[in-house]
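Before the break, one more example. Copy the sequence into your notebook; we will annotate it together after we see the structure.
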Amino acid sequence: MTLTPEQQAEIEEQRGTTRQTLRATSPGMEAHLYTAYPVLDHGLVRVIDYMGDDEAICQAARVSYGRGTKSVQNDEGLIRYLMRHWHSTPFEMCEIKLHVKLPVFVARQWIRHRTANVNEYSARYSILDREFYIPQPEHLAAQSVVNNQGRGEALSGEEADRVLRYLRDDAMRAYDHYEEMISDDGQQGLARELARMNLPANIYTQWYWKVDLHNLLHFLRLRADAHAQYEIRVYAEEICKIVADWVPFAYKAFEDYRMGGTTLSATALDCVRRTLKGEEITQENSGMSKGEWREFEGLMR
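Here is what the structure looks like once it is written out:
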């Protein structure tokens, strides 16, 4: 990760300034505020602002039941109940605003989560930096033979060297032409909004991304999963660490019920019941397709 002296000075100034407030704060999140956490080779994640904590989730839930419920059910138990029964509104009471620096091809995957507010660095007004994501050799992999959108074995030897050389050389060449096209030294210079189309998808962009906790957890459930693409998964894993300190009760319940749990179809649940009764279940008598059965077997191992 590369931070300019100006960016580093801004972060130090922000972390060095304290303000009195009457609003609820999370000590765990206060420790993360403004700190830039490196991701990939030039990327970063940092918290710009947040609202709410575990208590805000409970407060929102209890407003439906009136006074007196606090003594009946503790905060952690209530949050686990809400997570277990797929309640959403109480978790929407918490929000977070992140500054993220990420490759464009990761951003295009990320933006598919349309439940956030986003403001991205504009290449129409500003000039993008000469920073590209170049994978580490261990992350260069062939196309998976069983998954049309996944990776297989890592490339090795001369093929890996050749691919890395292409990625570096093509990115640098495209940026050289980008700089040449927008230059006004002895020429009119192409508009930035047009010149940017020649840049590769591994160039870095930046944005502010604001999202409520309910939708953030949905993002993390998909993108921090072991099957997610590595380049977006590492961002999700970094955000997971932040959320765990921000709302520890909610994150613990999320790990238990969403990341560590699963949802069974009625057919799969019937197979579990039949197995517990001693019946031998096969794909042929399960009522499942081959794909469903393969996933079911993976869960039951």
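Residues 135-201 form one domain. The first strand starts at residue 37 and ends at 39. Try to locate both features in your own notes.
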